Structure formats: C-alpha cells, structure tokens
Fold:
Amino acid sequence: MDRAALAEFLRSRREALQPEDVGLPAGARRRTRGLRREEVASLAVMSTDYYTRLEQQRGPQPSEQMLSSLARALRLTNDERAYLYRVAGHSAPESRSADPHVAPALLRVLDRLSDTPALILSDLGETLVQNAMAAALLGDASGHTGPARSEVYRWFTDPSARLRYPEADRDRQSRAQVANLRASYGRHGARSRAGELVRLLQRASAEFAELWERQEVAQRFQDHKTLIHPELGEIEVDCQVLFTEDQSQALLVLTAPPRTEAEEKLRLLSVLGLDRFAPAERG
Structure:
C-alpha cells in the first residue's frame, strides 16, 4: 500500500468534482475546490473520520469493498479505478467481477434524475445503483447477496419477486427475463458469470429450464408495463433504457404520461418516500 500515492490521488479526484457532478446541491459559496470530505464519505457510505484518515496517510488499508465504494463516489473511470486499487495494495479488479464498476456516464445521468424512478442494472439484472424513488417503487435492492443480486435469479427462485407484477403479465415477464439472459450469455459465453447463472437456474427452476430451451433472444430497449405497489396499488409506467457502448450496463428510467393517475401516484411516492412505502417482502 502506497499511502502517499493513495492520499494524493483521493484528494485530487475529490477536488476535481463539483457538487452538481454527483447530484448534490451547490449550496453556499465554497472556500475550497471540489467536494468536501464529508460529502465523499457520505457518497461512499463510510465515516468522515475514516475517509479523512485516508487522505492524511494514516488510515488502515481499505478493503476492496471500500475501494469499490470510493471509486463509485468519485466517479472514477475504469483506468482510474484500477490505479486506486493498486496504490491501495490490491490487484486491479477484473472486468467480470461480482461487483461491476458502474459506468460514470450513466451515473452522471442518474444523478440528475430525482423526480422519477431510475436505476442502473448490469446485464445480469443486478441493481448496481438506484435512486430513492426507484427504491420506494421497486424495493431496496442493496440487501441482496450472491446469485440473488440478479433479478432473473430472484424471479425464478423467490415467489415474492413476482408480486410487483399483475398475474396476467407474469408469463410475459418470465419469457423476457430468459430472453434477456440469453443475450448476455451470447455475448460472454458459457464460462462467464452469465453461464454460471444459467446453470444455477436450470437446476433450481423447471420453468426456467423449459423457457431456456426455446432459444429466445431479446434485449428490451423499451416497455410499457403495470407495477403493483404494496400501498399505492397498480401504477402504469413506460420504461426507457440507455445502454453503455458494450451493452454491459443499462440505465432504466420509469415514467408515467402527464396528467394521469400513474403520474399522481409517482408524485405521491416522491413526497412520502421509501420509509412510508417500504415493501414487506425482501429476497
């Protein structure tokens, strides 16, 4: 671990960011450049004291999980992220890591979407980041671990995962989940994480195994569907997706047409938030 290099790099990346770059209000006039230490700590979900000690060359060696959080908070590119890991005494993460680095370009868009549900997904259906409205509408995905981080895995192994959809639409959603996974499988191959997920699901779900044999391939760019909220009931939304160039991650934005009941429900959701409308089920 090169403490001096780590401290200098963290400081320089923090000073290069402005509050609006990470979705924070500019607030009163600032005496120093860039973000404050406490703002970076909050974005990385760590204590201000811990982060401060890293910048002062007196902190402990950060874990890979901490480094992943810092890379996300500081909006690092893949090359910058690899450098951060190396100066902190770790090997640079592989591109097929179980905790993918969120594309900075998608994060910048997500930072500006506070009035509608939005989230960033991996091509395996793992929620990498979600805003407060997405958590309130779809449930907080941060507690899922292992294969259950993937929406397609939960869909075929946890009956509660289907409660967000009307029963009449669940067959369509099942086919779409499998077709999307096959597209990922085709890009990465049988020895990839997509291949591992397919093998797990073939053993765990007869329904998945039957649908997999249909050889359907499709990557959804847009959709119109009805979601069922535990307290607000049915909400019709339009789904729009923005992919990274390599198709490995996608920003999903959920909106409702103006002056509709669905828009009113989303507005209510934004006012009352996650605490009031937290879902009862968790996978």
Notes: The mean pLDDT is 86.
